[in-house]
Design goal:
It is a single chain. The chain contains 25 helices and 21 strands. The protein has 614 residues and is an alpha/beta fold. The chain folds into two domains: 317 residues, NAD(P)-binding Rossmann-like Domain (Rossmann fold); 206 residues, Rossmann fold. The chain has an eight-stranded mixed beta sheet with strand order 14-15-17-16-18-19-20-21, sandwiched between helices. It has a seven-stranded parallel beta sheet with strand order 3-2-1-4-5-6-11, with helices on both faces. A two-stranded parallel sheet has the order 7-10. Helix 1 crosses helix 8, helix 8 packs across helix 12 and helix 14 crosses helix 15. The chain starts with a strand and ends with a helix.
Length: 614
């Protein structure tokens, strides 16, 4: 057997299949095609090594025969291809198949999720392969389950558990006791069932079938012989994740938090709505596997959930350590008008992403997102000057000049600009000066308020601070009272859950609150009377610029990201502004606050990447 090429987004099954192919044939070299990402590649190789050690303990290291490559370094020849993913872009995948004869490919093994309706992809692939004189097998997998450092996003049940894990932490970071008083509800029929299959069992079935010539040009359902009642899985999840997960058939029972969970796990919910028995027998027979080998009893289910939870905890801990390390990175410094201008860079590769922070805010919010972006980009960020240690005057004009100075110092002549809150005004003003330096713009929770902005486009927070800040221009002695008022307003009182009797209102209140870890950072502009006065002057200067009047001049892609529960920047402002930029789009994130990019960094990074690619 010659080279084997593994394509598709599913790292978990790809790693398991790699280990089996390596153990089956000592002369094969396997090439895993992935986008360039060191962490993802390392996790894939770790998972493959673990599985090879499990099935063939005497095997040596695998690095000489298992290679993670990108498009530019694929092998020139491959006899066998595993594509582990649903081909969402049919035309692109069909075009990919036409390259197979030139590579010498003899067979394609396509692994897709089992669904009632696969949009005809199975038939289309079979026809294309026959036309190209290439053999094929199509494997339709039920819900895959298993703990692994490799990405789990491609699998609906594992994604369901990841969303559950992250949502639990996101809610508890806002109101720690919430799940002690409220369950998490999920819309499902009383008799809903799911079919679970261990990743290693699914891979063993498929690999064993693929090693037999008489299985070519056929399709197989890869599934467990027994379905599992969803209500039983919920009980086991409760014992592991320490929250009450309650199936319900009544949509009206769902709170805003429940609906957020539903929205983020839409793919999994489809499995509950189409509990049709799969034809598991044929695959087991072809692979020579007995039914009891792949059946997962209740104890095994609990053990699997515990191992997945343990992996999630390990992933969270490792991510926290990486994020914490970013805050200890030394600054770079340049002199600007006689004052130091410290800034930070992270990562080395890809088009630079330059972050324009909100006025008066530090960098703590950004580290989780930077940790994601720096895998594929150089990231540049700094604290806007003028609030804590100002070289006055320091208005919007000076903020743009700081941006210019840093780009010049770093030798950056083209970049993506990401602005949060007040940052988009800086981005637009810079673009108008240097349009050729900007490839795209991302605006997070945007404030474009200026003198005369209609009342319906600003928050009550913005309306409240307007007279306060303008009053400080005439009477700076009021800084102390303004500082105290805003500290009280932004701090938010403690929520006594024992007094709450309306689950619907409670959920909205919880989602509207900020992560408690952010409170001291949000208060930063109001630490002292001096910082309050400095910040007020900057904001009033910011309001003097009617940036939206120039929006039609911006000719690069602009992504507006707004959120459902923003108390600082009204979603209506972004929805109004997006109409004024020629190449703009908007995403409204449900159940999120003004600090969404801190709470959901991977999600926000994914949105950014789509915009970066145009």
């Amino acid at each position: 057997m010659g080279n084997i090429l593994l394509t598709g987004t599913d790292d978990l099954l790809a790693a398991n299949l790699s280990s089996l192919e390596l153990g089956h044939n000592s002369s094969s070299s396997i090439y895993r095609l992935q986008p360039a990402n060191e962490r993802r590649a390392a996790a894939f190789l770790q998972c493959a090594a673990q599985q090879l050690g499990r099935i063939k303990p005497e095997s040596q290291e695998i690095n000489s025969r298992l290679h993670v490559v990108n498009t530019g370094s694929c092998p020139s020849q491959a006899e066998k291809v595993w594509h582990v993913d649903f081909p969402h872009n049919r035309n692109s995948f069909m075009q990919f198949l036409t390259t197979f004869p030139g590579l010498g490919v003899r067979e394609l093994n396509l692994v897709i999720p089992w669904r009632d309706d696969d949009s005809g992809i199975s038939e289309a692939v079979a026809e294309q392969c026959k036309a190209l004189n290439i053999h094929f097998r199509i494997f339709r997998c039920s819900l895959i389950v298993g703990a692994s450092p490799a990405s789990r996003r491609a699998h609906d049940f594992l994604h369901f558990l990841d969303v559950l894990y992250h949502l639990k932490h996101e809610i508890q970071d806002r109101v720690p006791e919430y799940f002690s008083y409220e369950p998490l509800r999920y819309l499902a029929a009383e008799d809903a069932e799911i079919n679970l299959m261990r990743a290693e069992d699914a891979a063993q079935l498929m690999a064993s079938i693929s090693w037999r010539e008489d299985t070519l040009d056929r399709s197989y359902d890869i599934a467990s012989p027994e379905n599992v009642p969803f209500i039983d899985i919920c009980e086991r999840i409760e014992s592991v994740y320490k929250l009450s997960l309650q199936p319900t058939e009544d949509d009206q029972e769902l709170t805003a938090i429940d609906r957020l969970f539903q929205q983020q796990t839409e793919g999994f919910r489809k499995h509950l709505e189409s509990a049709k028995a799969v034809a598991w027998e044929e695959a087991h027979q072809a692979a020579g596997v007995k039914r009891e080998t792949t059946t997962i009893d209740s104890r095994a289910q609990t053990a699997l959930l515990e191992s997945i939870y343990k992996q999630q905890e390990a992933d969270r801990s490792a991510r926290s350590e990486k994020v914490a390390a970013l805050s200890r990175q030394p600054a770079r410094n340049i002199e600007k008008n006689g004052h130091p201008l410290p800034y930070f860079t992270f990562g080395e590769n890809g088009t630079p992403v330059v972050i324009l922070n909100a006025l008066g805010q530090g960098l703590f919010y950004w580290y989780p997102l930077i940790d994601v972006l720096m895998q594929t980009h150089k990231v540049v960020i700094w604290e806007p000057r003028g609030t804590v240690a100002p070289p006055p005057p320091f208005g919007l004009k000076e903020q743009v000049e700081d941006l210019e100075a840093i780009l010049q110092q770093e030798g950056i002549d083209s970049c993506h600009l990401v602005g949060w809150c007040t940052g988009p005004k800086v981005a637009v003003e810079f673009y108008l000066r240097s349009p050729g330096a900007v490839q795209s713009l991302v605006f997070l929770n945007t404030q474009f308020k200026c003198t005369g902005t209609p009342r319906e486009l600003v928050t009550s927070y913005e309306r409240n601070i307007d007279p306060m800040f303008r009053g400080l221009e005439k009477n700076p002695g009021l800084a102390g009272s303004v500082m105290s008022s805003l500290q009280l307003n932004l701090g938010g009182g403690k929520l006594d859950l024992s007094e709450q009797d309306d689950s619907q209102k409670l959920a909205v209140e919880v989602l509207s609150r900020m992560n408690q870890n952010l409170k001291p950072h949000v208060m930063r502009p109001f630490e002292t009377e001096a910082t309050t006065l400095n910040y007020a002057r900057q904001v009033v200067d910011f309001w003097d610029y009617d940036t939206l009047a120039k929006a039609s001049q911006v000719q690069v892609p602009v992504l507006f990201m707004t959120v459902e529960y923003d108390k600082i920047a009204l979603p209506a402002m972004s929805k109004h502004a997006v109409k004024l930029f020629p190449k703009a789009s908007l995403v409204e994130v449900q159940g999120a606050s003004h600090y969404c990019f801190y709470d959901r960094p991977e999600f926000v990074a994914g949105l950014m990447e789509i915009n970066f690619k145009g």
